[in-house]
Write a structure and sequence with these properties.
Elements (H helix, E strand, L loop, with lengths): L1 E5 L7 H10 L4 E7 L18 E6 L2 E7 L3 H12 L6 E8 L6 H4 L1 H11 L4 E7 L7 H17 L7 E7 L8 E4 L7 E9 L5 E10 L7 H6 L2 E6 L7 H7 L7
Parallel strand pairs: 1-2, 1-5, 2-4, 5-6, 6-7, 8-11
Antiparallel strand pairs: 3-4, 7-11, 9-10
Helix pairs in contact: 1-5, 2-4
Length: about 250
């Protein structure tokens, strides 16, 4: 397959390199990724500044293109200018840290995969539930297994978009795979108030906690040691509410 590989942690991120190494022997992999970390930028795109692209080497061999934009920018410019439309899959990851619950909306990793779907290609986002010292070996291996499975079963459907989260556990400790919905439970967030040397007050977002308890959600299943797979869509319309408000009579 021809795979477009991107992320939001930057083109030299260990997770992206691990994924590339796991796939490049069996697939044609094209790397177009942000030149630096672009975490939590959501589905932002760059309109007021030019996009600059640099050819990047890894081990003195051409590796891919670094873009001074967002993950969604990378997917757009890859397909329209750098790689061309002959792509079978847009693959984003491996992200450092999970992308579950409401955080899916903030995630640049997930947004790159959904951008692929918007442009007419299947999308797959892979994240590992670890921030400090992640080892991506098993996550990359599982991603390669999943890519091969999808290639034989579902990748002819350009609307498919999967968000995959892998627990940071030894392979023999992972309980299995669960197909679950995205949690929409609110977060408990915390900000720390600080004062700089000049007496100016500033705030640092320093923690969040999920309130979700439903075992059939990505948040809880991942916490319990399961690989979670959640199908996503970018249509934000609420059909149930739409049917209710269609009868509204608003005068102007």
């Amino acid at each position: 397959m021809r795979i477009l590989l991107t992320n939001d942690d930057g083109i030299f991120a260990e997770g992206l390199c691990a994924l590339y190494d796991a796939l490049c022997q069996d697939h044609e992999v094209f790397v177009v990724a942000p030149e630096a970390e672009r975490s939590a930028v959501g589905h932002a795109i760059t309109l007021s500044d030019p996009l600059r692209v640099k050819r990047v080497k890894r081990g003195n061999v051409f590796f891919g293109y670094a873009v001074n934009g967002t993950p969604a920018d990378c997917v757009k410019i890859a397909i329209h200018e750098l790689i061309g439309p002959e792509i079978d899959l847009v693959l984003s990851g491996i992200n450092r840290g999970a992308n579950v619950g409401i955080n899916v909306l903030y995630s640049g990793t997930v947004s790159a995969a959904t951008e692929g779907v918007i442009l007419g290609y299947p999308g797959l986002a892979i994240s590992l539930d670890e921030y400090k010292e992640p080892d991506y070996c098993f996550a990359a291996y599982f991603a390669s297994i999943l890519v091969d499975f999808l290639a034989q079963n579902f990748l002819k459907n350009p609307k498919i978009c999967l968000n995959v989260n892998i627990p940071f556990l030894p392979a023999n400790k992972i309980k299995g795979i669960k197909f679950v919905r995205q949690s929409t439970a609110p977060l408990i967030e915390r900000f720390e108030r600080r004062v700089d040397p000049h007496g100016n007050v500033y705030y640092w977002q320093c923690g969040e906690r999920f309130t979700e308890q439903d075992p059939d959600t990505d948040v809880v299943a991942l916490k319990r040691g399961y690989i979670t797979i959640t199908p996503l869509q970018h249509n934000l319309s609420d059909p149930e509410l739409l049917s209710k408000i269609a009868s509204w009579q608003i005068e102007f």
